User: What shape does this take?
Amino acid sequence: MANIKSAEKRIRQTAKKQAKNKGVRSRLKTALKVHRASETAAQKDKMPGTYSEIDIARKKGVIHRNAAARYKSRLAKKAGAKAAKA
Assistant: This one.
């Protein structure tokens, strides 16, 4: 356990940040799972919402900007492949 006041404060701050980040990351993962599990037609409708969740996580610093770009790129690529198949 920390004995210094600044270290105790840092522990409290870290706990708050972890709780916030966990919620954002959970929402992101859920949005990605729902998007991936949906049918081709439904994916087109869910695309803006999923992109929004990715952007929110990026803006809050939960994921790196390159990771956000990678998620978006892969979603678009898979949606295009499914549309071409159907």
Notes: The CA atoms of residues 4 and 10 lie 10 Å apart. The longest helix spans residues 5-37.
